[in-house]
């Protein structure tokens, strides 16, 4: 299936039934627009919302805050069980105003877990969580999805977006682009094809990136990383291996420590007599160094 591209929030959300749970990488402005549109769209329905602005009742302890909602929603599970599900038992006596951002998010997720909403909008649900907290939240979201709850989540991190169960999109240049998943492209055993995906580690998972989505490859502190929409992902291959695999996709070894996607290059700049950079046409306008010794090869490549 060809990954979808939607040009507006309204169009994307109107097709949410097609995609299932939606997870979107975007900036704060788009997160705010999503929240306002969804809240209006879901008015009168059993929906739950969490934004980064929510702090709760600041003088309450975590336990007293959750106890109020435990009674309000008529939750049948023991309160300790609810708190344990989100790793909150050790924070029982902590006041809400003293919680760290990740602890605050887990507390609000515990709250809406008792609401039994049919739809949830979550802003940055994995931000500032440690590995255990991330696993607990992902387990809960996955469980709720299986029970028919619909989710739309918004993230500033592509990695967090891809970790969520459902369909991932990223926002770029005014449109929403569906992230292609490895399982979307089926092959027969007798099919002969060349692997064009670059594996990269994200926590305990391995993500597969299409070369066209990679801005550049960077070698730093004996590790190699691919840069995708402003975020670095660790890869296990050597730079020489990556150069060999990616050159057929338009990548150029512009520096001993860098490979650059030539399709992403917007302009060449000479900063000093011996200092050159390639400026990319991504949102960050990334500046990738170009070695003086590789300038002639680049000129030959571009015929200039």
TrEMBL record:
Gene Ontology molecular function terms on file: DNA binding
Residue stretches spanning the membrane: none
Protein name: LytTR family transcriptional regulator DNA-binding domain-containing protein
Family matches, as InterPro entries: LytR-like (IPR046947), LytTR_ABC (IPR012046), LytTR_DNA-bd_dom (IPR007492), P-loop_NTPase (IPR027417)
Sorted UniProt keywords: DNA-binding
Pfam families assigned: LytTR (PF04397)
Keyword Hydrolase belongs to the record: no
KW Methyltransferase (keyword) present: no
SMART domains: LytTR
Domain HTH LytTR-type: from-to ranges: 198-304
């Amino acid at each position: 299936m060809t990954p979808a591209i939607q040009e507006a929030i309204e169009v994307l959300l109107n097709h949410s039934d097609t995609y299932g749970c939606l997870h979107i990488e975007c900036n704060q402005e788009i997160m705010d627009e999503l929240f306002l549109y969804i809240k209006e769209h879901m008015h009168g329905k059993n929906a739950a919302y969490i934004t980064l602005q929510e702090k709760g009742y600041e003088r309450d302890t975590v336990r007293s805050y959750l106890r109020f909602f435990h009674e309000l929603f008529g939750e049948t599970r023991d309160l300790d069980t609810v708190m344990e599900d989100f790793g909150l038992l050790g924070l029982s006596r902590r006041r809400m105003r003293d919680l760290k951002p990740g602890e605050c998010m887990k507390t609000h997720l515990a709250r809406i877990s008792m609401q039994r909403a049919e739809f949830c909008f979550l802003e940055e649900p994995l931000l500032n969580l440690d590995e255990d907290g991330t696993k607990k939240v992902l387990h809960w979201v996955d469980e709720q999805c299986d029970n028919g709850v619909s989710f739309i989540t918004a993230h500033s991190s592509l990695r967090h977006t891809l970790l969520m169960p459902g369909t991932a999109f990223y926002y770029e240049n005014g449109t929403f682009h569906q992230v292609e998943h490895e399982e979307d492209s089926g092959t027969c055993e007798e099919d002969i094809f060349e692997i064009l995906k670059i594996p990269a580690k994200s926590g305990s998972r391995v993500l597969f990136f299409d070369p066209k989505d990679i801005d550049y490859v960077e070698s730093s502190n004996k590790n190699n990383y691919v840069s995708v929409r402003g975020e670095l992902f660790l890869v296990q291959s050597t730079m020489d291996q990556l150069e060999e695999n990616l050159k057929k996709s338009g990548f150029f070894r512009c520096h001993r420590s860098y490979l650059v996607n030539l399709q992403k290059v917007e302009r060449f700049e000479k900063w000093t007599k011996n200092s050159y950079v390639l400026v990319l046409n991504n949102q960050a306008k990334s500046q990738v160094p170009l070695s003086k010794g590789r300038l002639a090869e680049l000129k030959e490549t571009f015929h200039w």
